[in-house]
Design goal:
The protein has 322 residues and is α/β, with parallel strands linked by helices. The chain has a domain of 223 residues: Rossmann fold (3-Layer(aba) Sandwich), CATH 3.40.50. It contains 18 helices and 5 strands. The termini are far apart. This is Sulfotransferase family protein.
Length: 322
């Protein structure tokens, strides 16, 4: 599939992007509060987001065949076998028709990602969103995009903003391993031994996406190549659930501050789950040894306290690896 970046210099762009007061993309790391943020934005009267949180539009436009391949495969079946969404709903049986529409539009647009991205504009600027002050979407996978794609996204309109929400890299890695094991083994089989084995296998996997997702310096460096720092807001999962941080988010997007239910953290880990050993945490920290100093230098006192405890494990992890 043609890379999204090949059309970055094409002057033709859907007019709706140009007239949007604020166009934004939440590219936060997975398991870092983006589901909570999506709910908040859906409820905010001045913010418009698609019915479904993760369209994966820009990943698919880059040619990511593995960005939930089930969507692509079943979308193709739906097109060839039926004029309705029967096949599609076989996989997302519990989801709303609005989600079907959102994904269908995103996939249709990504098949032809050349400007003016009209189908994508349909997704962001629905009839219900005409009165909104800020239009955008949330997709954690966007943290893995190429710098050229960030450039194209930043050129869609006159005021494009990016929001990157991050979580302690070791904890984010562990959360990803747990999620994978739940899907493959079932929640009841995610034991301490299973987690330990999953950690080792994931760390040793060639070009591990789990490690890439925890290496925030790569996303930050790629993003800041083409986007002014004033148009990027960085948040931390551990300190985000606070009215002051929510107000900072609203100010950044140019919308009124709305009081949020900061006590409701979606997908917060269950306390009864099997614990991760200190040795496994140290092993992960050793693989992420360059991330913590970068983040500390970049954000200083804003780094949450929990991150310091994980950083302290780096030396232990290095000894274990040696």
């Amino acid at each position: 599939m043609t890379s999204a970046a090949t059309d970055a210099d094409n002057p033709q762009t859907d007019d709706r992007f140009q007239t949007a007061r604020t166009l934004f993309f939440v590219i936060g790391a997975q398991k870092s509060g983006t589901t909570w943020m999506s709910k908040f934005m859906h409820d905010h009267p001045q913010i418009a987001v698609p019915a479904w949180k993760e369209t994966n539009y820009w990943n698919i436009a880059e040619g990511w065949a593995d960005v939930d391949y089930r969507l692509v495969a079943h979308q193709s079946k739906r097109d060839s076998e039926s004029p309705i969404y029967t096949r599609f709903r076989e996989i997302f049986r519990r989801e709303s028709r609005a989600k079907d529409k959102a994904v269908t539009r995103a996939l249709a647009a990504a098949r032809n990602p050349a400007a003016p991205h009209g189908e994508y504009a349909d997704l962001l600027f629905s009839d219900q969103a005409k009165t909104a002050q800020a239009h955008g979407e949330l997709c954690p996978q966007y943290a893995l995009l190429k710098p050229e794609t960030y450039r194209e996204m930043s050129q869609l309109g006159p005021n494009v903003r990016f929001i990157f929400i991050m979580r302690d890299p070791v904890e984010r890695f562990i959360s990803g391993v747990r999620h994978t094991l739940r899907k493959s083994l079932g929640r009841e089989n995610v034991t301490q031994d299973a987690i330990s084995k999953g950690v080792v296998e994931t760390l040793n996997a060639p070009k591990s996406l789990a490690l890439r997702r925890s290496d925030y310096r790569l996303t930050i460096t790629d993003l800041e190549q083409h986007v002014p720092q004033s148009h990027i807001a960085y948040f931390f999962y551990e300190t985000f659930f606070d009215q002051n941080e929510v107000q900072r988010l609203c100010t950044f997007l140019g919308v009124d501050h709305v009081t949020a239910d900061v006590g409701r953290q979606v997908h917060k880990g269950a306390g009864s789950e099997a614990k991760v050993t200190q040795a496994d945490k140290a092993r992960i920290a050793g693989h992420l040894s360059e991330v913590y100093p970068f983040m500390r230098e970049r954000f200083g006192d804003r780094i949450p306290e929990k991150w310091h405890a994980s950083e302290a494990l780096i030396a232990e992890g290095a000894r274990a690896a040696g």
